[in-house]
Amino acid sequence: MRGALSSLRRMIDRPDPAPEPGSSPRAVAGSRPAAVIDVRQVTKTYALGDVAVHALRGVSLSVERGEYVAIIGASGSGKSTLMHIIGCLDLPTTGRYLLDGIDVAAMSEDELSDVRNRKIGFVFQSFNLIPRTSALQNVELPLVYGGIRSSAERLHRAQRALTMVGLGDRFDHQPNELSGGQQQRVAIARALVTNPSILLADEPTGALDSAATVELLDIFDRLHTSGRTVVLITHEADVAARAQRVVRLRDGRIVSDEPSLQGSGERRVTLTSEMSPV
Asked: Helix, strand or coil for residue 247?
């Protein structure tokens, strides 16, 4: 159903529609934009033999364009399941998920794949870099999958993405020649190279030391300041505190949704050359 994807692309470049009455407590008509991520009473149930595992139990969450939101919870709280749904990697058992106003359930597998490649950038704890392949080639890969045929354009965009994350001198280094923090920055560059409007990061600091963690969170701060929507999944309170807003999950339910004391200050949203689209 190519029509759903065409509608989604049109909505990316136009103002968000007004929220339905009562659909999002954070959306105020006439004062703030409607949600780019709109999760409505979502449940997710997995069958484990004869046992039904309820990973999400009626979760509702809205994220506005340009917000920086941390979703925090212990192992088994449902935070990674929620990220998979937000990232169009999985579908809810019940409830609805609207991405830029489009119901994800109406999209075909090809359309979902296209959205994942073009609109959402993913960063994972395990880096997921291809071994024995240069940083530049790792970052180019989404462009190959995205149908960018010009090798010169792919090279330019990959170089710019790596430079954005401070790896302009590491183009030809393979993963085993990079530190953990540098590998994660390559993963961020790969997530950004298609210029997605949403960055989803699942435990991105889990394999990093404290110094590399600070460097990584500084990059997320700059991306947010440039106007990108960032959703960060973590179990660490000090990492979550860097976001604008902290959503806490427990046993598949949202138990709190509050501004972060550390990250709640108003940020000047200016597109700098350092963090401009690649």
From this structure: strand
